[in-house]
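DATA SHEET
Item: assembly model
Revision: 1
Owner: S.N.
Input lines:
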Amino acid sequence: MQPCAYIGHGHKDSMALRETILTVLTRGKMTGYEITKHFDEVLSYFWQASHQQVYRELGRLAEDGCVTHKEVVQSGKPNKKVYTITKRGREELQSWVREPTPLAPQRYDLLVKLLAGTCVENEVLLDEIRRHKMVTDEIRDNCRVMQDACFSTPLESLSKHDQILYLALRRGVLIIEAQQEWLQEVIDYLEDGRFKK
Amino acid sequence: MQPCAYIGHGHKDSMALRETILTVLTRGKMTGYEITKHFDEVLSYFWQASHQQVYRELGRLAEDGCVTHKEVVQSGKPNKKVYTITKRGREELQSWVREPTPLAPQRYDLLVKLLAGTCVENEVLLDEIRRHKMVTDEIRDNCRVMQDACFSTPLESLSKHDQILYLALRRGVLIIEAQQEWLQEVIDYLEDGRFKK
DNA sequence: CCCGGCATGTAATTTGTTACATGATTGA
DNA sequence: TCAATCATGTAACAAATTACATGCCGGG
């Protein structure tokens, strides 16, 4: 089998966590906590980051003058730092958007399991694949429900931001459907050693 | 938009590089260099690793007694270490295959770029998306050619190992086609602000 | 009264990337 | 002769994960 070019290992640039945070901040001032919430909610479909990552990156962004923060004293609660993106931050974000992004490398351990699969009974592998299929079923349903529920109004009337979120959801559905088709083919193959396609 | 459950951040276990190397070694004794070659060739479709990672992990595997190595003196070339998987290594691999794998987290910076997109002209974004589409076109063609060329014989007559590689290729094709459909929808959207679906 | 959510972080560890280093062989 | 490939690594750094830590508030 030939090597898969295009997906290289050595990628510099990227560092998209930094730029993702800047992107979130273009929507308005926010605390580290709120940014993290964003990662747990809307952004979770195409980016994940823990609060530790967010705080560290905010520290670096502040050092580099891409964000500023104001400490807000709160009664009862610990103080919070509200971050604002600076002109410099916007410039950095802009030039990141302008320069080409490399394709993301793929790592898929289910395939490694299949390759290693001869060391366990077929049923064990099948169970694992079926489990993945069930989880993917749920995700797909979840995506579809969200498409129907949140975006029942004509798409053109949504804000630009929501239109992008719709596209994110749409991508989720398409990729997951492909993934599911593949999982089903693997199940068929493992069940009777035949290929459907 | 609701959070995407299922794709969590905190994943322990995984550590599939270790297990991928063990899997490769079940096919026969190999040097670190040969394992790296494997990562550059067949495995590149679903796993990538640099030679530095491979050497480091081999060191750890040897420490833990999962592999042994024999130094082979070569004339003209530097000596090489031929690694063999041990009983212990096979056991560890087996229990890894047995325990469930979490779904891989997704990070997709093109979507971040779309979200941040309001800060640049539409044409800049379009160029980037079109570029991605062209690269994906190439990958898809490449996958298809390989399917036709390498697997023209009846699939059932292939070795189990090659059947798995076929499945890997098949997954590549399915996922990439979905990705392409999505990229086309994004292009349509950016070109005239309309949604086709 | 305990638990979960708010809100902030530090520290340790692992994993991945980049750069540096050596030295021989083979083909253009 | 020059570059590429074989073959092996070390070192430094960046990024991601896990665990630890604090302290207040509100609800069951």
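QC remark: Chain B touches chain A through 93 residues (CB under 8 Å).
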